[in-house]
Amino acid sequence: MSNQNKALKTNHYSEDSEDEEAEPVSLRDISQETYTLHKSVVVSETVMVGDTDFLKHEEFNFREFQMQNIRKVNDTAKKGGFEFEYISGTATLSAKGVRVMDNIVIAVKDNHGWNKVEKGIERWMLANKKEITVKLAIMYMKTSEMVSDSLDDEPPSKKKVIVSVCS
Asked: What is the mean pLDDT of residues 38-44?
């Protein structure tokens, strides 16, 4: 292999600033590549959101997703007579040919956390990983139930009631 061919295969780094880390210049266009995003939002043991999207890099708006979730959980909490609090948010990145133990797990509480996920997606796309999947799980916990004003001497109801909330 000639020196000219070797030079073409090496990574190129920009030297815009000495203070910043050297980032490789993207030689591959990933703008049309997609990944799978599985979203789930859970309050205690109740799944509030369970959905899958097929997205391009940097297409997902985490802030908008989080605001929709808070509204949805808040509405359900008002109807159900309980309060809630945020517990955790995690994103797990996996891809075809990547061992489960090598999946990337990132804490996602805000846009900063989601930016880490986007960076992981970008790196794997540039590394030509196939079938990239992100599993985003947001967990909330019920903190208090609405207290009934009824007398304590009433017998408990023997009927099982299942409430389904659809929006």
From this structure: 96
